[in-house]
What does this fold into?
Amino acid sequence: MTAGVREQPRGADSPRPRPGTRSRLVGWLTGLAVLAGVSYRLWLLGHAAPPTNSDEATMGLAALHIARGEGFPVWFYGQQYMGTLEAYLAAPVFALAGGPSLLGLRLPTLALYVLFLLLTWRLTLRLTGDRWFGLLVVVLLALGSDRVVKNQLIAGGGYPEMNAAGAALAVLAVDLAAGRPGWRPARWATWGLLAGLMLWVDPLVLPYVVATGAVLVGFCHRELRGTAGALLGAAAVLGAAPLLLHSLSTGRNPLHAVLTAGGAEASAGWADRLHGGLLLGPPLGMGFCGPGRCATWQLWWAYALPVLLVVAALTAWWTMRRGTAPRVAGATRLALVLAAVGTLAAYTVSSAAGRTPVESSRYLSCLLLTLPALLWPVWTALRDGPRIARPVAIVLLAATLGTAAYATWQGARTAPASRAAEARHDELVATLRHLGVRHVRAGYWTCNRLTFASDERVVCAVVDDTLRPGLDRYPAYRREVDGAAAPAWVAPTGSPLAARLDERLGAAAGSLELVTLDGWRIYLPR
It folds into this structure.
């Protein structure tokens, strides 16, 4: 098919939207679901949840430096991969607010979540034409387990923008492949720009870039030979310009850094990789588990997912054989399924799946992009399938919604503890400033968070649990602390670092003065 065919696909094998009262009802319900998803995340932000950390603070410090014009980093400080798009998005917020804050850092990520939700709803309608199914997808994405909201709200690099960009790429691919008239040059350029940006920001979304790109090649190969291809290519180079310019100027290969971070140079047994990648990873990464763990019954999604992927692929292929308009929807659904398979395969073969399966399940966050294609066969079985298939579809959809809702409730229960922890950290910052402490040494997960929360009024250098220098992502802080006359020490109560400092306090009486706070210990040199 070429771009000369002007289609307006409602989506393959679905009926026309229900008219009248039902159409208005589903519209109102969808709007309420969007509002509920955004309100829930605003409530979490009001509780400083999910809890922040020094990695997120590192992105916040990059945003602060950009807002002040002190630096324009290409990569997350301390490494040669993961672009700083989130920092550039937060910098104007900091500039307008007059300083940094956790809320200001996360407002752009909240906006990206809203964009992802709306684009996925639009993609669902493009692929299926069924507004009630669109409502189901929106409800699922409005829910948010601990792992899911961390991926969506924490400005730790890459995750909040990947799903929004992936959904936009899919919507653009459907419109372009279907020959949708109007703004075609802009659509081609936007698709290329987003693809290039994601190459810079985080390559985890590349399976979806490749899959939606294959749809464009399959349906628009003639158009791509002309101006459309030139626009797409130029925009892609523009989007990836930070990566390309840095690689050319330094001679460094960012792909090598990404593979190293993913565990390519580490060791993990295949049994552990398969367990982490195929059993724990999907339910954790797609929002069916509680904070930091999966109960045995919550693992059911890991067994259902392969079956759903096979069924979704077969039905998408069958849809492609039915005619002109269904071909685009079917091809896009098949592309989303294949992208999910590629994502799962890439994660499973990495050592990260075997070594740190709980935390590394964040690498599967893009699987949410496949939900419309994944659940469409189940929905059609419920709506139009044989009578024997309907109970199975009802049970499966009810289990999906129920498990995701329970995981959301489990995550929401941790919000008061997050707010209390943030209050204790605020007291730490206020106490250091009251004591006139400007320079401190602390552990990795304390340092940059402390520096960011204090607006760099307290500068921290990282030490490990043996008091030796640790990983300083921003070396200027290390140099400043090392040049200070008498830096203080900060450690969480009960930590190995606090135990080592307590030993020094006892062995050299009079050398340190201890100030205790709820959850923190400050060691002041005399």
Q: What stands out?
A: The beta strands are 439-442, 459-462, 488-492, 512-517, 520-525. The chain has a mean pLDDT of 91. The chain has 23 helices and five strands.
